């Protein structure tokens, strides 16, 4: 259930990125769902390998290279999914920033099982 929830969140983040970032375009919500699914698979399989291979560059740039890596992953998804288009490198970086920010916010609020985490204040 958590994986399906994250696919839908990725799809909504991609739709938001297409609305905000020039050069990122989505042809429909079905294409966004496909892109969300492929992005989840790329983040689970391809990205860890790339993180290990580019670790020296990431360390030298104090982690800023991770933005480039996220952009390349988004660009890869656009190359695989029809109906999802990324015009160029900077559009991929901008789209990856939006998708990463949305994913970070959702991860902070939703657990891996898909349940909303309620933070209570004791005092």
How many domains comprise the coordinates? 1
Kindly report how far apart the N and C termini lie.
Answer: 34 Å
- Which shape, going by the Cα principal axes? globular
Count all strands and give the number: 2
Major pleated sheet: 2 strands, antiparallel
Core attributes:
single chain, 123 residues, mainly alpha, two-stranded antiparallel sheet, 5 helices, 2 strands
Topology, element by element:
Blueprint (H helix, E strand, L loop, with lengths): L1 H19 L3 E3 L2 H25 L1 H6 L4 H16 L3 E3 L2 H21 L14
Antiparallel strand pairs: 1-2
Q: How would you characterize this protein structure?
A:
- With 123 residues, the protein is mainly α.
- It has one domain.
- The chain has five helices and two strands, in the order αβαααβα.
- α1 packs across α2.
- It is globular, with a radius of gyration of 15 Å.
Concise structural overview:
About 70% of the residues lie in helices and about 5% in strands. It is mainly α and about 120 residues long.
């Amino acid at each position: 259930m958590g994986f399906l929830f994250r696919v839908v969140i990725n799809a909504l983040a991609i739709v938001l990125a297409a609305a905000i970032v020039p050069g990122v375009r989505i042809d429909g919500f079905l294409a966004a769902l496909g892109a969300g699914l492929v992005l989840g698979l790329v983040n689970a399989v391809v990205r860890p390998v790339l993180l290990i291979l580019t670790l020296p560059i990431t360390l030298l740039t104090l982690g800023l290279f991770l933005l480039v890596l996220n952009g390349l992953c988004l660009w890869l998804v656009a190359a695989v999914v029809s109906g999802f288009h990324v015009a160029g490198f900077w559009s991929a970086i901008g789209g990856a920033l939006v998708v990463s920010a949305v994913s970070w916010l959702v991860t902070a609020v939703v657990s891996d099982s898909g349940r909303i985490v309620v933070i209570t204040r004791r005092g």
